[in-house]
Design goal:
By secondary structure, this protein is mainly α. It has a single domain (about 10-180), classed as Arp2/3 complex 21 kDa subunit ARPC3, CATH 1.10.1760. Helix content is about 75%, strand content about 0%. Residues about 5-10 and about 185-190 have low confidence and may be disordered.
Length: about 190
């Protein structure tokens, strides 16, 4: 059975909202419970939302709402860094929307890796610019990225693992509940 995107029947908005609530709940719980640094499902949830949800607006809401809710509980850092991080977490959603045109089996690993690398580059650039921890020159930028490399491993492994879990779970749901399937067709413009 090929991994397909969900049914776009009239009941899809209800399924979309249910998925949004589950994804946000998963991300919030994963961020609140003890975990290795950067080993959370935030990027994977954004990628999944972008590829699966019918509504682009709801897809964009998933990572941002999950981060805001969990940050309200855990506390905020420098607001400028947070804004950049939230923006960086929208990028996997955009990649997921773009990736709808490809077979998920072929697209997921490259999209998850691209999402990890984009997040690493963008978030650490914000740390370099706004944290005051590094000199604002090329040497400081290089130092920032070099010191962040240990976090990249957790980011990549976590994003790939969580992407596999989310899409694998969705595939199992489609097998167990055939009403969630649709016949493959070109993605319509929204």
């Amino acid at each position: 059975m090929a991994l397909t995107m969900p049914n776009r029947s009239p009941t899809s908005p209800v399924m979309d909202w249910l998925l949004v609530a589950c994804l946000i709940g998963l991300v919030v719980a994963a961020r609140l419970f003890p975990h290795a640094p950067n080993f959370t499902p935030v990027v994977a949830a954004g990628l999944f939302a972008g590829m699966v949800l019918r509504s682009r607006t709801l897809a964009l809401l998933v990572p941002v709402a999950a981060m805001v809710i969990s940050d309200l509980i855990m506390g905020f850092e420098d607001w400028r860094i947070r804004v950049v991080i939230y923006a960086a977490l929208v990028l996997p959603v955009i990649l997921g929307i773009w990736g709808q045109r490809f077979r998920p089996v072929l697209a997921l690993l490259p999209l998850a890796l691209a999402s990890s690398l984009l997040f690493f580059v963008v978030s650490n650039f914000a740390v370099w610019v706004f944290s005051g921890m590094y000199t604002l020159d090329f040497s400081g930028l290089v130092q920032c990225y070099v010191l962040a490399l240990p976090f990249l491993q957790n980011t990549v492994v976590g994003d790939v693992l969580w992407t596999a879990v989310l899409f694998g779970s969705w595939w199992l749901v489609q097998i167990w509940f055939p009403a969630t399937q649709r016949s493959p067709s070109p993605v319509s413009s929204r």
